[in-house]
Amino acid sequence: MAPRYGDWQLLGQGSDPVPGDAEEIHDASTRYRKVAADIASQVRRLRQIHDDDQILRGEYADGLRDACEDTAKDLDRA
Hints:
By secondary structure, the protein is mainly alpha-helical. The protein has helices at about 20-50, 60-75. α1 runs antiparallel to α2. The longest helix has 30 residues, at about 20-50.
């Protein structure tokens, strides 16, 4: 890992105070953005199921719709 360029003395530091591998950080941020997009997609789908009374029918439908909304709220917080 190559150190980042900078005059760290301005910060009262002799070297980079937060060393890290820029490529590794970029790869991780790409993965996290994909996970966030996947979660957002699932939240939208769960809310569609909750809001559309034509998707689910039968005795179980109301309970399942409520569970979809609860799960969507939990995922939205993630």
